[in-house]
């Protein structure tokens, strides 16, 4: 049985749920959370003022990978993004995921590797 959420996790969840334009997608199989992705829609002045979307924290439980869970999450997310008029959707994935099939998955649902990404972590690892 998983550990109960900490106070910090509860506070983070409450903040997420109160954030406009942020949606958390979950996949439930038999009452068990097996997949999730967070989607943020960001308004902007470019692209004829159409919003951009950002996918973060796309995770599927190891024992449910390659069963269509991520594909269903992404299809729902992209349908919602289209309904919101998003111009583009972006996501970052760690380079090692090129070896575990994640990059192939993202390509299979229409994403293209087209930009160089940079990160700056502001706290210790």
Structural account:
The protein is of the alpha+beta class and 125 residues long. The protein has a single domain (7-108), classed as 3-Layer(aba) Sandwich (Aminopeptidase), CATH 3.40.630. The protein contains 3 helices and 4 strands, in the order H-E-E-E-H-E-H. Strands 1-2-3-4 form a 4-stranded mixed beta sheet, covered by helices on one side. The model has no long low-confidence stretch (mean pLDDT 93).
What topology emerges from the helices and strands here?
Layout: H1 7-17, E1 22-29, E2 32-42, E3 52-60, H2 69-83, E4 88-91, H3 102-108
Parallel strand pairs: 3-4
Antiparallel strand pairs: 1-2, 2-3
Task: Write down the secondary-structure element order.
Answer: HEEEHEH
CATH classification class: Alpha Beta
Shape, per Cα inertia axes: globular
- Tally of strands: 4
Distance between the termini: 26 Å
Radius of gyration: 16 Å
Helicity, as a percent range: 25-40%
Strand order of the largest sheet: 1-2-3-4
Strand content: 25-35%
What's the CATH architecture? Answer: 3-Layer(aba) Sandwich
> Structural class, judged by helices and strands?
alpha+beta
Going by CATH, what is the homologous superfamily? Answer: Gcn5-related N-acetyltransferase (GNAT)
Task: Please summarize what this structure is.
The chain has 125 residues and is α+β, with helices and mostly antiparallel strands. The protein is 26% helix and 26% strand. The longest helix has 15 residues, at 69-83.
